Amino acid sequence: MKNIPVRHIHTVSKKKGHAASFNIRDVRDLLKGKDMTQELHRHDFFYVLALKKGAGSHAIDFTAHKISDNTVFFIRPGQVHQLTLKAASTGYLMAFNNDFYHPHDEASGQSLRKAGNTNVYQLDASRIKKILSILEYILDEYTNQPEGYAEVIKANLGILFIELVRQNAHSSPGNTDFYAQQRLQEFTSLLEKHIYTFKQVSQYADMLNLSSYQLNAITKEALGKTCSELINEYIILESKRYLLATSNQVTQIAYQLGYEDVSYFIRFFKKHTGHSPEAFRANFR
């Protein structure tokens, strides 16, 4: 059984203290005057690509995005993506995992979850300037390592996430109330962690100490979808990830996703996509 290629944080110059859990690079230094192409893969860390100047293409969970100026891409652990970044692009590429940034206060955790729920931010000139100045400061701390630099970096990460959340609030006024958003994000985290094992609304409701009715009310209010619809969407997304990013047989993928009845998995996939798994792989790979 072949898994989707997973990339881990690594650095060219091993920074003491957190080399395995945090990294930031100037995009110009990373590209060195050449285009960069990354084939389909997933991460076990958060990935932030903030561009002042940008050109190329970026597919995140099979949604294609044309790269342009003043754009921030925010990818959560587990998502798959494929990137082509042109040589003239400028900005910063940052990676970190929970070993480095693990906020214990609820407000900071909320900001990270909210910021990570959006993959692509298209910013105006003033907001991208603010984002890039934060990242420039983080890069300077990371490079020079003055006393307390790791804590300074973490504090600035918190500011960065708040700025991205503000962008969403500006773009989408009248969002769902705080409580519903919090529970929705908790549900999403559980879904990503347990989807191979748990596929029933009641199972997630129990983990959240909610009734199925309450959980459905939250997802309907926030996204206009039932909890079952969100579970099915995530199963289909994970199926697509394995179909397009690996050469595994459909039987193997079904077992990986927790389906012992392969024919049921095939019917389920076709019902929600209009294609059999094999046809989807042939048409979209």
Using only CA atoms, what is the Rg?
Answer: 20 Å
* Mean pLDDT across residues: 89
Number of helices: 11
So what's the CATH class of the largest domain?
Mainly Beta
Named CATH architecture of the largest domain: Sandwich
Give the helices and strands as they follow along the chain. Answer: EEHEEEEEEEHEHHHHHHHHH
Entry keywords:
single chain; 285 residues; alpha+beta; Jelly Rolls; Arc Repressor Mutant, subunit A; 2 domains; 5-stranded mixed beta sheet; 5-stranded antiparallel beta sheet; 11 helices; 10 strands
Task: Describe, in plain words, how this protein is organized in 3D.
It is a single chain. The protein has 285 residues and is an alpha+beta fold. The protein has 2 domains: 6-171, Jelly Rolls, CATH 2.60.120.280; 178-284, Arc Repressor Mutant, subunit A, CATH 1.10.10. It contains 11 helices and 10 strands. The protein has helices at 27-31, 106-116, 125-144, 149-171, 178-194, 201-207, 212-223, 227-245, 250-256, 262-273, 277-284, and strands at 6-7, 22-26, 36-43, 46-53, 56-60, 63-67, 71-75, 80-85, 90-96, 120-122. The strands form 2 sheets. The chain has a 5-stranded mixed sheet, with helices on one face. Helix 2 crosses helix 4, helix 6 crosses helix 7 and helix 8 packs across helix 11. The two termini are 19 Å apart. The model has no long low-confidence stretch (mean pLDDT 89).
